[in-house]
User: Which sequence fits this backbone?
């Protein structure tokens, strides 16, 4: 109750201040403030954790770092958050916990909605509304500090203004003199406005090595686990680009973080359905892929990689006694927001169990289309507890 009074006193002061200076009064001043949640406190902190990866100057989308920047978007923020479109995390809550989860928890969501519905107050004087109340991460940086090995990706890739989302593949020679154990591969964007995600594959074998997103918070493999990269490997880097409002030449780099010399090797397992096709007009065509395990294994991470017409993806373990344990469920698949899913606690799957993936596809066109139902899994042998 006390804070609420303070909040409106602040706004009252701001309005008075504006009136004295003859400034136009803000368009929203008629909306009564009915919340104690302030931009300068709770909101800026949540945005710092969950939005500034993409919503700052010269980044993927509009800046939300100051009250002046964010206030006009209050209604849009309400809608994006409520519909769970922002932040762009696609796993349905409650099915698996992931270290790189950037979604809003229930409390964060309630705080944001209370703010947008309660008049979206700033908590600062009008003159201070264009100053960010919290630290804003500077231009592109490496996720885990300086990597052990850095490689440029080609000579610069041109992304024309307004170009639609597309995947581009580059081959990057590592020039590694000896084989290495790798705990993480990261990307540093050349230009943050156009890079949405990246995936890394070993060119010789095609196996998945890891993926990157702008919110790459925790995709280091757990201590002791590492992917083996042979000497002289070449890495295929697949980048999802989306045009900005200007022509851009992207010069991104990849960085490798080495692991300890010994430990458990992580392998890649491809869960893939036989070639499937989706009839014209289909809205939910089901495609199943399944692998029965002849040895026990531990699942560490997922990289769903279906064709863009996928609508939902479910990956489960089915035990020999037919007990189903869901590991990952993506309900509204958005191909331009692909993400890896690194399990907080790797899951050990018993011998004789099946890994089952069910993908639903839609086809709004008027002719039959091919569909690829595929996901990569990072796996290790059974891990001792
Ligand atoms: C990984 C990057 C990323 C993160 C994290 C992110 N956004 Fe976004 N956001 C975008 C992009 C890019 C767009 C532009 C629309 C699109 O391409 O989907 C967007 C669009 C929006 C829009 C609609 C703006 C418009 O143009 O209509 C709002 C509002 C928004 N985001 C709010 C948020 C909030 C609030 C958070 C944090 C709670 C957040 N976003 C987190 C990338 C991100």
Assistant:
């Amino acid at each position: 109750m006390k804070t609420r009074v303070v909040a409106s006193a602040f706004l009252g002061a701001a309005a008075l201040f504006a009136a004295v200076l003859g400034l136009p009064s803000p368009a929203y001043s008629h909306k009564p403030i009915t919340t104690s949640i302030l931009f300068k406190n709770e909101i800026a902190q949540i945005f710092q954790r969950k939005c500034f990866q993409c919503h700052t100057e010269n980044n993927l989308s509009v800046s939300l770092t100051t009250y002046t920047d964010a206030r006009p978007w209050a209604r849009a923020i309400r809608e994006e958050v409520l519909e769970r479109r922002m932040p762009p995390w696609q796993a349905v809550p409650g099915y698996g916990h992931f270290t790189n989860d950037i979604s809003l928890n229930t409390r964060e969501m309630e705080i944001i909605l209370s703010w947008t519905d309660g008049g979206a107050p700033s908590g600062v004087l009008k003159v201070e509304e264009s100053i960010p109340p919290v630290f804003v991460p500077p231009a592109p940086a490496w996720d885990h500090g300086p990597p052990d090995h850095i490689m440029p990706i080609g000579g610069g890739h041109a992304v024309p203004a307004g170009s639609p989302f597309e995947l581009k593949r580059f081959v990057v020679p590592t020039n590694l003199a000896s084989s290495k154990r790798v705990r993480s591969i990261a990307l540093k964007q050349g230009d943050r406005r156009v890079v949405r995600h990246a995936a890394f594959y070993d060119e010789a074998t095609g196996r998945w090595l890891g993926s990157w997103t702008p919110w790459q918070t925790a995709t280091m493999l757990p201590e002791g686990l590492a992917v083996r990269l042979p000497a002289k490997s070449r890495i295929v880097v697949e980048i999802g680009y989306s045009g900005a409002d200007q022509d851009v030449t992207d010069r991104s780099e990849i960085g490798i973080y080495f692991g300890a010399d010994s430990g458990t090797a992580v392998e890649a397992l491809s869960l893939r359905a036989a070639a499937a096709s989706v009839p014209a007009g289909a809205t939910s065509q089901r495609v199943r892929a399944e692998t029965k395990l002849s040895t026990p294994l531990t699942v560490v991470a997922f990289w769903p990689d279906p064709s863009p017409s996928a609508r939902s993806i479910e990956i489960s373990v089915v035990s020999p006694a037919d007990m189903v344990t869901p590991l990952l469920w993506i309900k509204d698949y958005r191909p331009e927001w692909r993400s890896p899913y690194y399990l907080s606690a790797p899951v050990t799957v018993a011998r004789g169990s099946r890994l089952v993936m069910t993908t639903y596809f839609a086809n709004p066109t008027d002719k039959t289309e091919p569909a690829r139902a595929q996901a990569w899994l990072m796996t290790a042998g059974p891990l001792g507890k």
